[in-house]
Amino acid sequence: MQDRRVHFRLTVLSGGRRGQTTTSDHSRFRLGAAHDCDLRFEGERGVKAHHVEIVQENSRLYLRKTSEDGHLLVNHREVSEIILQDGDLIGLGLSGPQIRFRLPRRRHRRHKPILHICRDCVDIVKLADVPAHRKISVFVRHVWHDMVHQTTRLFRWSTLVLLLTVGSVAGGYVWWNNQQFRHYENSLARLAEQSEKERRTLKAELEKLEETSRQVAAEGERRLQRMKESMDETGGQELRRLAKELEKLRGEFDFAPSLVARYSSGVCFIVGQYGFAEKTSGRMLRFAGFDPQGVPLRDPSGQVRLEVGDGGVPLSRFYTGSGFLATRTGHILTNRHVAEPWTNDEADQEIIRTGFDPVWLVFQAYFPGHRAGYPLQVVKHSKAADVSLLKTELGKSHPSVLSISPTKPRSGEPILLLGYPAGYEAMLARYSKQTIESIVSERPSSLDQLAQAMARRNLIRPIATQGHLGDVLPHRLVYDAQTTHGGSGGPIFNSRGEVIGVNFAALPAFGGSNFGVPAELILPLLPR
């Protein structure tokens, strides 16, 4: 069964094709300087012949670089391949044209919403290399062009009818004023025909009338000046108020790309594997053996046969989680059930009660952009919430340090959640078949080796989801940003880039109730 075609729209914000909007549903859409490209940038600095392409796979749109020596930036971060999201900013080359990518709704496929027209024109003005006094004319020209070519026929006809109505009213007023002037001229002509005596009387009256008219005109001019000054002041205040409201709305919806680009490197992918050692001897609990198919042997009751010894395969548990760097000295915050996963597992607790201690076989953090993992140690746990402090040794080029918000968040404010929900499955789903085959060719024998292979290829990057705070309680935050297992320990950001909590639980049956530990319960764990 063929994939459903996905419509997308590209608006060029800078360069020679500035202001051009292209809508397509092609399964393969090429951008570059060559003649056979679907969107051609001939003569643009930094744009290669076949620079990038947009490919539809499984109802997703992948942006891939097709030129080895070209540069591709998405939201000001250089990539070679990425799944496109609505509102992404694509840059062809380090100083080449900037393109806004959008996924229009079904009813907006043939035209652009007025809000998108205004936002695109504002971005065009920001990127335009013109003097400040010409930016207004650039904005007006592009708004007018999009209103004519990108809006619906109903909108254009409505605007035309409005203009015709205004023109008709203005023309009627001019005609009426002309008729009044002619009537006044005829009256003067009849008065001129009267007798000399009446002429002298009329002359005196006219002189008096002229004086009165001058006084009235002067008074009217003074009132008009006062009204103009009042309107300028009031209008300026209103414009400033509207600008603040617009900036507030834009900040609520546009803060995510900049936060992801700035702080993703400080959000780590935690990989853990632990076994069990006998308290008295220190020897590991192991499988007694395997059948020819590689299945562990079982006793007559159906239980897996285990034994304590020095040979054989140890019994171990493997899991993944999320965390983030909180200090420059290598302190990492995560959930306690990530730092000590056996505390919430009944089978593990039964093994511990029979005389065994949990022992780490693998406990490492992988940061985006770093080719190797960082060994972890547990420093301490919170007594008030599901949160723990870990420690690792950082090199000279350490990841971004995330700052904890000192103020209490408010219900309803927008948030951003970063983490690794669904672990390897979600990360590998973002990459092409060729990339996955390259990883498999190394034949990783464990999930830790799989993480190392992905880190060497710079494929470990957190997933971002947005939402709003539904409620702020003393010991938890409630929000609707989507997450699942593996996302535990990820940071929750406000729109200013401050961490307001740590994600610790999700309700699969109700996406509107995911939970986090508030920042005020995290701060006591950090070193003074």
Please explain how this structure is put together.
The structure is a single chain. With 528 residues, the chain is an alpha+beta fold. The chain has three domains: 8-151, Tumour Suppressor Smad4 (Sandwich), CATH 2.60.200.20; 162-255; 262-525, Thrombin, subunit H. The protein has helices at 114-127, 135-149, 153-192, 196-263, 336-339, 346-353, 423-428, 433-440, 447-456, and strands at residues 8-12, 21-24, 28-32, 39-40, 52-57, 60-65, 72-74, 77-78, 81-83, 89-92, 98-102, 267-278, 284-287, 306-309, 316-325, 331-334, 356-366, 374-375, 377-381, 388-391, 414-419, 463-472, 477-479, 491-493, 499-506, 514-518. A hairpin with a 5-residue loop joins strand 15 (316-325) and strand 16 (331-334). The longest helix has 68 residues, at 196-263. The chain is elongated.
Q: Given the C-alpha coordinates, what overall shape results?
A: elongated
Question: Order of strands across the biggest sheet?
Answer: 18-17-12-15-16-20-19
Oligomer: single chain
Rg over C-alpha atoms, rounded to the nearest angstrom: 35 Å
Strand content range: 25-35%
Distance between the termini: 60 Å
Show unreliable segments. Answer: none
Structural domains: how many: 3
Largest sheet: 7 strands, antiparallel
Based on DSSP secondary structure assignment, what is the total number of beta strands?
A: 26
SS summary, helix count? 9
Helix content: 25-40%
CATH fold-level assignment of the largest domain: Thrombin, subunit H
Kindly report the average pLDDT value.
Answer: 85
* CATH class identity of the largest domain: Mainly Beta
What is the SS-derived class? alpha+beta
CATH architecture of the largest domain: Beta Barrel
